[in-house]
Design brief:
The protein is α+β, with helices and mostly antiparallel strands. The protein has four helices and five strands; from the N terminus they run βααβββαβα. β3 and β4 form a beta hairpin. 22% of the residues are buried.
């Protein structure tokens, strides 16, 4: 390993903590930009903190650290499949900054998701990625994952 890829002390993947909310929001904004959309901060930090660390956590998350800095994250939650009549883990986001790719952090983030799935008794992990994310698709295929062509629709629920 050369100096550019030698991990610094503390580098790797660890569960998110309440003190990570600023870094998480920054990484979410970068992830949005990477996928070609705009991030608007409208108080997500408090809701994310509640979902991750509240009395009934609904979201699992980990932070990737590279060169001593927050460089990526993963989040997931349990869902229920009517077809299988069973729970599965839905990986909502997996993002790594470009400089942090190729260091094994993506695999470590995915290992965190696997551990969460096992802890929750889930036999399956599902996620999606944009059709034009060739780099992500190569990474996911390398892990042994397969994909199904499907469209995802969004229908806003307007306030009454």
């Amino acid at each position: 390993m050369n100096k550019a890829t030698t991990p610094a002390p503390g580098d790797g993947v660890r569960p998110l903590t309440p003190g990570d909310m600023d870094a998480l929001l920054r990484l979410i904004a970068e992830h949005c930009a990477y996928e070609g959309t705009t991030f608007t901060d409208h108080g997500q930090a408090a809701r994310l903190e509640q979902a991750l660390f509240g009395p009934q956590p609904r979201l699992f998350g980990a932070l990737a650290v590279s060169r001593g800095q927050a460089a990526g994250f993963v989040t997931a939650s349990t869902e229920y499949s009517t077809w299988n009549a069973d729970t599965y883990l839905h990986m909502d986001c997996l993002y790594l900054q470009e400089q942090a790719r190729g260091q094994g952090l993506g695999m470590q983030l995915l290992a965190f998701v696997h551990a969460c799935a096992r802890q929750q008794g889930c036999k399956l992990i599902q996620w999606q990625t944009p059709q034009d994310n060739a780099l992500g698709q190569r990474f996911y295929r390398k892990t042994g994952a397969s994909c199904k062509p499907k469209l995802r629709y969004f229908l806003p629920v307007e306030a009454a």
